[in-house]
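Form 12-C: Joint structure prediction
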Amino acid sequence: MMDEKKYAELESKISPKPPLIRNLFTAFITGGTICLIGQGISVFYMTYFDFTERTASNPTVATLIFIAMLLTGFGQYRKIAQFGGAGSAVPITGFGNAVISAAIEHRSEGYVLGVGGNMFKLAGSVILFGVASAFIVALIKTILVKFGVVSW
Amino acid sequence: MLSIFVTAFVVGGLICVIGQLLFDVANLTPAHTLCILVVAGSILDGFGLYEPLIDFAGAGATVPITSFGNALTHGAMAEAEKHGFVGVLTGMFEVTSSGISAAILFGFIASVIFRPKGKV
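Section 2 - Result
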């Protein structure tokens, strides 16, 4: 009979270590490539439409989410995610993928309860914590400005 | 012109490396990781550090999810500057509307045209 400690030791010895360096490398390449494509799209919007460097990020994000929709719908984003890990999750396309895949998956439950109710199942926490932290940060900054500690 | 593509690739890649470290080393779930990155972007903007990063890296700073936190905070602070405390609440989605509206719209369209293929 093996006691629990020995078993845990043995398990950690046998089970494969997550290839950290390889994961970091693929995340870097995947994330970098998505941002590179984003840069190309924003240069396109700056050249052919009336956008500046700051305002181009809005249509760029929308275009990237559109591409994420096609990749998700045809089942390709999953493959990118398997290769890229965080490199596919951290860019805005990962946010889009979370919303879109939830929408497709819950379609069978109907548009109101299924699609509408589950769309933000995964992405909702990002919106919640984004809004909550934006509120707190902006509130603190406003108070500090009112007391003259910092300026805008 | 070309250098912005290089910095976009490197900075965007490095933000994803931070995400991967939170996955693999800190053993966080993807949802926790993304929340931490959003809050980090928001706090960086509070110190006025995220906008210089956008100037430096372009899409390398605006495409990762950190920019979502930055945009929310930036809108809230810009409105607060004009209208005081009320602006903190009302300005939040001023800048960042496109990410959420695009995700909702394209999510809806996708649910109409695509059928689930196993796990999408």
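Section 3 - Comments
Chain A touches chain B through 82 residues (CB under 8 Å). Chain A has two domains: 20-121, 123-152.
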